[in-house]
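On clarity, I found the account of how folds are encoded harder to follow than it need be. Since the whole study asks how a given chain folds, the encoding of that fold should be made plain. For the editor and my fellow referees, an illustration may be useful. An entry of this sort, consisting of the sequence and the corresponding backbone structure tokens, reads as follows:

:::
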Amino acid sequence: MTSTAFTNDPTGQIASAVQAIEPRLVEIRRDLHAHPELGFEEVRTAGVVAAELTRMGVSHRTGIGRTGVLGVIEGSRPGPTLAIRADMDALPIAEETGLPYASTEAGKMHACGHDIHTSTLLGVAEVLKGLSDQIAGRVVLVFQPAEEILGGAAAMIEDGALDGVDFAIGFHNHPDMAVGTFGFCRGATLAAADRFDLIIQGKSGHAAHPHTTVDPIVAGAAFVSQAQTVVSREIPPLQPAVVTIGAFNGGTVHNIIPERVHLKGTIRTLHHEARDIAEQALKRLVDGLIAGHRVQCDFQYVRGVPPLVNDDKLLDATMAAVRAQFGSEVVEEGIPSMGAEDFAYFAEKVPGFQLRIGSSAPGRSDRLHNAFYQPDEDCIGLGVQALSRAALDILR
């Protein structure tokens, strides 16, 4: 694609450029969909990305954050640096769509649309490469591995993905929004995600003689019940939080009180205050088990990704660009989600904003992480237009 001087309104130019490359982007998406790779295994995917960037003449480096790819488009004039990030990894889910380009890898599937994201950012790369003489600054294209295991962003940052970056835009397809619409949420938009493991050590024995035992199941049941009061009675009601016990394992037969049980859970919060309260409260409840139930406890609490907090100025600039490209009627303000996303690490380091791109496909699953999930592929070209216009308007 050759560079062309653009008028004060690049709407038509961007739309035409995307129309020309959209069939190729859909082809790439279907190839990636048929060959999903899990976190930090995205060798083939990274190879596809690198080959496309080479074809476009976009400077890039591979092996960033183990299997990530970092591309750079230099503008014609000095200016700030904008990073645009797409995730590349799939999920350990067996696909059941029956589509001709369904996964060929047993037990692996792009059930979150990261194949959509990767092909979208490749489209952005091609459009912006063709319009690089209109950019004041540079664009860093971040093709990130391992979002689903919440490890890829930190790995790429450690390898220098944010060096010299002034602000960062992420994006995600949204099957709860009609294709052709774009959404945003002010402030905290996605939750911090922490996890814990609790091993409760009791004293095993026969169910007929419970007084000779120390029952870890009773203690574990008390913890499950009490943990719910952290949200209902300790965290301020206007600060959303979720405490979930996802596993409770112990015992093997009907009439034996076991030696120990193992509980696993997660804590999701949108506010730093609520996050601190939840961690301290759970630790205090564990101390209560030791005193009240005569058990011993090994409690391991691990903080994961922080809340993803959108920067107002970057949000406003991005959504103004979307409105300029498509009109105001396609923009929707949404509400926060208690889901987590490791783009939060980028937004913690520099001003960040995650754009929501409608991907609802009539008659198909409207749930991410689902064996039947298939987004409407029209969201690829629309996403390319939105993100390209945002980059141009922000860096003009």
Remarks:
- Residues 1-6 have pLDDT under 50 and may be disordered.
- The chain has nine helices and 16 strands.
- The first strand starts at residue 59 and ends at 64.
- The first helix runs from residue 11 to 34.
